[in-house]
Amino acid sequence: MKTLIAFFAATMLLCGCDNSHKHSEHCAKDHHEHEEVGNKHSEKEHEHTEHKHTEKSDKSIKISAAVQRVMGLKTVKAQKRDIKSTITLPGRFELLPDARESVSTPVAGRLNFAVKPLATVKKGDILFTITAPELVARQNEIDLIEKRLLVYREIKTKNAALENELAVKKAERAALVANGEEKDGVITLRATNDALVEQFNAKNGDWLDVGESALEMTRPNLLRFKALIAAKDAAQITNSLKAKVGAYEGKVRLGVGDDSGLVPIYIVFDGEINEIAGARKDATIFLSSKESVYTAVPSKCIVDINLQPTVFVKDEHDGEKFIALPVTPLESFNGWTAIEGPAKENSEVVLDGVYELKLALGSDSKKEAGHYHADGTFHADGASH
User: Fold this and answer.
1) Number of H helices, E strands in the chain
2) What's the chain's average pLDDT?
């Protein structure tokens, strides 16, 4: 009986130890799991905080290409400028006075065109021919004199008068041919430059007198740039100053003013340029050779957001994303302002549509979520349509 009671006591003791051990393991496991949940919760809070921080610092807005067109949104490239030492003038390209050429016939004859109106020709291409009976008649006179001289030469007798007459006749005929090519009384006229046949001054088959124009040629890329400036402002501009229009560099030539109080400013280029006569552009005239260390943008690109001067820059990797960047405006002149800040040279800065972007971004430091309609209006998420 005592043995049986001892057996049961030992069994109960072992069971108690085992349960206690299992209970400890269970508690430790629960505690570990609780710590993991806590850590995960902290990580989520950290990620959420990071996300909120990124969203708050990245002031940007997405606008589709279609909506950009509806808004009339345009960008301009930021560029290095010495604001105090440059002048920007609007103007247009025009043909140089010698860009047009009238091609005339050197001798009277029948016209035969080899080109069509508005054709583009290369240097050396045939423009037209002139069949000139006078050249045939003069050649017959020359041939007759040469036959008479041949008789004198055979008898070894000189005839100075006839020799002089022959020389004069040949010179007169050569003068009639001028720069043309002649064969059997037909003169061929060729283009002296690459050009455009702008217009005909006669019809095919017409009889033209000496010096009469057959057609007009134009070199459409032989251009200069012309702008107008007030006479009082022209005093700071001198001949030969460097200037730039688009991608083309040139030099300044001052024109003569008139009673309007305006002075024409010409920018001449070295050779032909790939522009169109009549096209409008802005020219930059450099009053100083000093290069600016500051990036400049048109002054209208800068808007205040929460009292902070800001520009909107197109994301170079996403043409539908525009980022609001804070800047510090510096000197301003002639519609341009030098800036300090994250906007870099050649960044595409919003010029037209900047105030619409400001309104869409919102005046609050936290960006308002929303989207654009096809008509260009912004609609905040959660608002009723």
Assistant:
1) 5, 27
2) 80
